[in-house]
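Below is a filled-in request sheet from our internal design queue. Each sheet records the structural input a requester submitted and the sequence that came back. We keep these sheets so that new team members can see what a complete request looks like end to end.

REQUESTER: design group, bay 2
PRIORITY: normal
MODE: inverse folding
CHAIN LENGTH: 90
BACKBONE (tokenized):
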């Protein structure tokens, strides 16, 4: 069973309709590759992390296009951007 089908079945069984991933770049990459997200929420921090910090997405093998839905300025110069997935290209 593929990951997307498993999530649909889990949603049907337990009644959830939304999956939020903030656990790390590997799972984020899997979700992107499977074409699962319909939205992408990013927080942009005003600092440069350097090479010792992990990426947002690992092992992504597809391209996606996004449409910006909204931006919001938070405390300390943090910017929240919400995007809608327009299409996935293989």
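RETURNED SEQUENCE:
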């Amino acid at each position: 069973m593929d990951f997307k089908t498993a999530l649909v079945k889990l949603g049907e069984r337990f009644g959830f309709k939304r999956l939020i991933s903030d656990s790390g770049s590997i799972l984020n990459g899997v979700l992107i590759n499977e074409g699962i997200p319909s939205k992408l929420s990013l927080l942009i921090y005003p600092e440069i992390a350097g090479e010792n910090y992990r990426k947002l997405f690992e092992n992504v093998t597809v391209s996606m296009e996004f449409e910006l839905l909204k931006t919001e300025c938070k405390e300390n110069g943090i910017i929240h951007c919400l995007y809608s997935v327009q299409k996935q290209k293989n």
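SHEET NOTES:
- The chain has one domain: 3-89.
- The two ends are 21 Å apart (CA to CA).
FILED BY: M.R.
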